[in-house]
Predict the structure.
Amino acid sequence: MVHAPPSDTPWWALRYEELAGVDPALLGVSDHDAEAEFVERLAGFGAGARLLDVGCGLGRQAGALSQRGHNVSGVDLSPRVLRLARERWNRLFPGERGPNWMPGDMRWLPNSGVYDGVLLLGGSFGLFASDADHQAVLAAAAQQVRPGGSLVMQTPNPYWWAAKAGTQYVAPGSWADGVEVVQNVRFDAVAGRVDERTICFVGGRRVEPPVQSLRAFTPAELVALVRGAGFREVEVSGTEGWTVPEEPLPVDATESVWLWVSARS
């Protein structure tokens, strides 16, 4: 059966477009070079691997992997965010061949060939209200990976986020120049979701994009989902705080902010 993607713009596309319109720095401040190196280590990618970065956003991870010699395609639902990704690459690396940017819904990925690996990094997995949609994302990813290829995912650790709910004030310059941020995070234990409300104040203007709501799966749930999509050799590792580890670490309920999943097709 062929499904048509929904026509309405979902909250995550609106959110990321609004934050990018204030300052692209608000979409991520992590060490993307370290992330790229860790992704290589988790998946065992050789030189020149063909990779698909699903929900690529501004393309920081896709760009870092491209700089490391891989052939990367980035998929995102928002044409505006993809345009910013392309502009960012051209500004940082003028004249260099970079990632291939493609619009698309992660449940119905563009048929652009077979990849050595599919990546779901940052907050790109867990967006939907229904777990059937999350299963569809993984099924679509499985269709893009060659036999023996890899899946790498980064998702919020529900144990850590359940204990870290609260509100914080971020002074101008901490995340973005001239932008004050008030951020409230709550954990919905019944739905298993991390809800993040972000309010930006810039130049006397208040910007409040849609609330980010990410499904936070336990390690056992992730293993079941990934295996259900047809992947094997599924492993879940953790972090030390927010830092990207150099080697896979055991999941720690109080220290692992993120869960990293690796699997084989």
Summary: Residues 19 and 26 are 6 Å apart (CA to CA).
